[in-house]
Every structure is written in structure tokens, then in C-alpha cells.
Amino acid sequence: MARHAAPSSPRLTLLRAGLTVTAASAVLGLGGTAAQAAQPAAPAPATSTDSKLNDSKLAESGEAAVQGVVGALGHATAGALGPAKNLKLYPLAGTGVDPLDNAVGTQVADFKPVSTAILTDPLTKGGGALKNLPLVGPALGLLPG
Q: What share of the chain is helix, strand, coil (3-state, %, to 5)?
């Protein structure tokens, strides 16, 4: 089998997806800082005795650039993660072709009935999003979006 036809590992696929998301958020973040940097700045005084004043202006502009990058990355991640957190995990839920929308149950004598609906109902009712999962949901609440 040729190397290009060999199945790729899931680890490599996840690495590629992560790098793509990182590059996209970096591009979005740089766009915000470029827009902020495009604003004209006031000319600095041209005296040689005011080197401390020039240093403080340089430090202020550096702080403004850092704030711009942090703000842009925050907005970019919120815009990227918001739809992913609300994404429906099972797209066939609530449709007529849902293969999980069939439950099997039984009852023996006076015992409590047993059914498979307990397992399939959370998916077939259509409420399954990433934010609704028991362990992942609270963790996603910490992320913006």
C-alpha cells in the first residue's frame, strides 16, 4: 500500500485540527491588533533630555498592544467556541429516521420494568449538546462563548 493511501492515525488528525484552530485564532487576533495599531499616534517631543518621557510612551504603547492582542484573542475564541458548545451531538434526534428511537422493555412478575429507553432517551430527545454533558459541560462553562 502506498504511503498516501495508508489510514492516518486519529492522533495526527487531532493535531492537524488543533493547529488549524490555533492558526485561525492567531490570524483573527492579529487583525484586531492591526486595526488598533492603525490609529495615528501623537508625535513624540524631539528633545534629547526627555528620554524618560520617550521610554514611558514606549511602555504605554507596549501595554496597549498587549491589551489589544488579549482582547482580540478573547473575542476570537468566544466566537469560535460559542457555536461548538451548542452543537447538537446527535443530528438524527427528533427525525423520522432516528435508529435509536426504539426502546425495548420487559417486566417479569412483580418486579420493576426494565427498558433500554434510559440509555437512548437523552440522545433521541435532542437535548444532547456539549454543554449538557455531565463532566464536560461544567468545564466548558469556564471557556468564553
A: 55, 5, 40
Cα(29)–Cα(27) distance, integer angstroms: 5
- Given the C-alpha cell 429507553, which residue does it identify? 117
The torsion angles phi and psi of 47, rounded to 5 degrees, stand at: -95, 145
Say whether pTM exceeds 0.70. Answer: no
CA distance 84 to 61: 35
Closest of 102, 98, 97, 96 to residue 128, by C-alpha: 98
Q: Residue 129 phi/psi, 5° resolution?
A: -120, 165
Mean pLDDT by 10 residues, the chain (145 residues): 69 81 75 57 54 70 83 81 78 80 87 86 73 76 73
How large is the C-alpha radius of gyration of the chain? Answer: 27
Largest CA distance in the chain: 98
Q: How far apart are the first and last CA of the chain?
A: 44
CA distance 119 to 46: 74
